[in-house]
Amino acid sequence: MFSYISKTYDLLNHVLSFNIDKSWRKTAISYINGPSVLDVATGTADIALAINKSDFLKKVIGVDISLGMLKIAKEKTKGKGIMLTCADALNLPFRDNSFDNVIISFGIRNIKNKIQALYEFKRILKPSGRLLVLEFSKPKNQFINAAYILYKDYCLPNIAGFVSNNKEAYKYLAKTIRYFPDPEFLSNAMLQVGFEKVNFNFLSFGIACLHVAYKEG
């Protein structure tokens, strides 16, 4: 599905989030520490490029299961020194203890076996390595949440359908956000697989949430 919307994916993300998604990504990468970063579900490489721009000395690798997304990502990252490869988040082609940081933005809700994915992220992280998960959430304020639901469930698919001719893909997006568990669930899952110092912060009144966790040292 993501391959079908890859050409308009960046534009729609920025328009539909009123460009706030750029601020969310900037907040997420501010937590990165250490020379190596794996960007899981890299999509069109927005996060990978932002990391590269903030510190071009960092080793950045992006993985995604969608060939359509990776095609766009390769065009955007040409000459930037960012490595890209097609891989499943549940079976990453890297050795144990390979990365200082693993980041996944707006991707974990699309992974069916989230526990297995978290184990895989933990496996490839170095001791004391950092996991960053940026994901949509649900505002706690009932008025903001009501407006958000109206926009997400009704306005978003119609705008997306007009721009990308693929309304169903963004209906799916709205559905995955609606049924994605609360941040507390994901934090507990991280603790369950053995991550330490797990915490999360709401962004933009709770529309998004940034989770931070560490592999044991």
From TrEMBL:
GO MF term set: demethylmenaquinone methyltransferase activity
Keywords: Menaquinone biosynthesis, Methyltransferase, S-adenosyl-L-methionine, Transferase, Ubiquinone
Catalytic activity of the protein: a 2-demethylmenaquinol + S-adenosyl-L-methionine = a menaquinol + S-adenosyl-L-homocysteine + H(+)
EC number: 2.1.1.163
InterPro entries associated with the record: SAM-dependent_MTases_sf, UbiE/COQ5_MeTrFase, UbiE/COQ5_MeTrFase_CS
Gene3D superfamilies for this protein: Vaccinia Virus protein VP39
Enzyme class: transferase
Residues binding S-adenosyl-L-methionine, per UniProt: 44, 64, 88-89, 105
One Pfam assignment: Ubie_methyltran
Signal sequence, renumbered to the chain: none
Source taxon at top rank: Bacteria
Protein role: Methyltransferase required for the conversion of demethylmenaquinol (DMKH2) to menaquinol (MKH2).
Family statement: Belongs to the class I-like SAM-binding methyltransferase superfamily. MenG/UbiE family.
Record-linked NCBIfam families: MenG_MenH_UbiE, PRK00216.1-5
Protein name: Demethylmenaquinone methyltransferase
Source organism (scientific name): Desulfurella amilsii
Lineage: Bacteria, Pseudomonadati, Campylobacterota, Desulfurellia, Desulfurellales
Name of the encoding gene: menG
